[in-house]
């Protein structure tokens, strides 16, 4: 577990790998992510159940981290999260497969964004990547977050991606 001093309130922000106990907090952060961007609450009573189902499907191939403030006495409040999807490359003759990580769903509550929390979450991902011997980390940053990731050492990877929406093709 990593800790970052929150100098404004004198609290420690703890970064740790999330587990099943964090499911509700992670869903709450995902909801907050959208609502902060839209500027209004989003009514979706089935969201938490849908998120829980997604979490259980993704858990075997993703590692999630949560940033939280608080103490054992007062309890903890989640203020941010990030995850990395592990992609395992198929081996080929003459070369063994490797692994890479796709960083996604990074979010920190606006009130904690300038307190070192985003950097601490990203540091946890980078340390995980080193320990798992990933060949690289990739991500698709928003326009606003791209400078943060560049300062952390991420470089443009070119425009070599193509996309297809299968629903636009005729059925066979």
UniProtKB/TrEMBL annotation:
Sample GO molecular function, one term: acyltransferase activity, transferring groups other than amino-acyl groups
Official protein name in the record: L-amino acid N-acyltransferase YncA
Domain N-acetyltransferase: 13-172
Pfam families tied to this protein: Acetyltransf_1
Protein's UniProt keywords contain Cell inner membrane: no
Keywords: Acyltransferase, Transferase
Record PANTHER family: AMINOALKYLPHOSPHONATE N-ACETYLTRANSFERASE-RELATED-RELATED
InterPro entries membership: Acyl_CoA_acyltransferase, Bact_Acetyltransf, GNAT_dom
